[in-house]
Design a protein that fits this description.
Elements lengths: L1 H20 L1 H15 L2 H6 L2 H20 L9 H10 L8 H20 L7 H39 L9 H18 L3 E8 L2 H8 L1 H18 L5 E4 L4 E7 L3 H19 L9 E8 L6 H18 L3 E3 L14
Parallel strand pairs: 4-5
Antiparallel strand pairs: 1-3, 1-4, 2-3
Helix pairs in contact: 1-4, 1-7, 2-4, 2-6, 4-5, 4-7, 5-7, 6-7, 9-10, 10-11
């Protein structure tokens, strides 16, 4: 009995070696199956040059996994799965896309095995087919796990950064304000908050389209980045509202920054056809206007509305007697 087992192992290795030499043909067969089930738009988006470059190596990796115990050092399914995901390049595939991709890999290998198994007996064919099935099952499991991990990272990025401007979101701003409050309560460090409202954005969207409005928001973000310090945190907290956290700042120094920001936005958005966009800036500072996140944001929001209604560029909040009651953000 041992002798037939060693002979079968040798035949399996020889068959896998031939399949390895034909890896480009296997890659072409896989690509044909992918194109057969894809829409015209998906076909036009396929990174064919990348697939042609990387898919043969991926096939080699799957064959090495299929060899199982016969392979001294097969590549891990996690690495192969990540390469499979990246072959889509232009878009993140769905779990069903990956399942079909892996199934297609299994089919093209088994079809090739059917035409190249003369040296294998029935038991050898079954053993190698089982190895292919096990390899592709491991690849599929790793691919779905990698995909879920990637989506988790993307969701975290979207939650922490505004996708249009790249600035922080309200969620991450609130967290940083809470940290600034903790520093103030422990060490006495003051800080300022500025809320900016982009005036006329709705009219721009209605008259020129949403792309024009988005372009203005990006310009406001760019002006803010160029004006503030590296330690300051700019955030987009609503459709047309921004907020700047300014560490180690009093209300007066934050007001000066607000005036500079208003001028920077006007300069950044000005065109030969007209003046730039006007922003209204509300300013508060801790501890001068409170020491609680919601109250400070509400105070800056109220000051911004006062500046807006009064035609001013900047207004400083007065939390003891707020002139305008605003709904606290959650």
């Amino acid at each position: 009995m041992p002798e037939p087992d060693r002979s079968r192992e040798r035949d399996i290795r020889a068959t896998l070696a031939r399949l390895e030499r034909d890896r480009e043909a296997l890659a072409k067969s896989w690509l044909v199956k992918l194109i057969e089930r894809a829409s015209l738009d998906e076909i036009s988006d396929l990174p064919t040059a990348r697939i042609a470059s990387e898919l043969p190596d991926l096939m080699s990796g799957v064959l090495a996994l299929s060899e199982g115990g016969h392979a001294p050092a097969a590549p891990g399914p996690g690495d192969q799965a990540e390469r499979l995901i990246q072959l889509r390049d232009s878009r993140t595939p769905s779990a069903s896309d990956l399942t079909r991709d892996v199934t297609a890999i299994q089919l093209v290998i088994l079809e090739a095995l059917r035409h190249d198994s003369d040296e294998l007996d029935g038991a050898g064919v079954a053993e190698l087919a089982a190895g292919v099935a096990g390899a592709t099952a491991s690849l599929q499991e790793a691919a779905v796990e990698n995909l879920m991990a990637r989506r988790g990272r993307e969701a975290h990025t979207v939650a922490e950064n505004d996708p249009l401007t790249g600035l922080a979101t309200l969620r991450s701003l609130r967290r940083e304000v809470e940290r600034a409050l903790a520093l103030h309560k422990r060490y006495g460090h003051p800080f300022g908050l500025l809320v900016l409202d982009v005036e006329g954005l709705r009219q721009i969207n209605d008259s020129q389209g949403a792309q024009a409005g988005d372009r203005v928001l990006v310009q406001v973000a760019l002006a803010a980045r160029r004006t503030i310090r590296s330690v300051d945190l700019p955030a987009r907290i609503a459709g047309d509202e921004f907020c700047i956290l300014v560490p180690d700042a009093t209300a007066e120094s934050a007001r000066t920054l607000g005036e500079r920001l208003a001028e920077a936005v006007r300069h950044e958005t000005s065109t030969p056809d007209g003046p730039g966009i006007r922003v209204a800036v509300g300013v508060v500072a801790c501890p001068e206007h409170g020491d609680e996140v919601g109250a400070l944001l509400d105070g800056a929001d109220g000051a911004m509305y006062r500046a807006k209604s009064g035609g001013e560029a900047v207004a400083v909040g007065a939390p003891a007697e707020p002139e305008i009651t605003v709904k606290r953000r959650t």
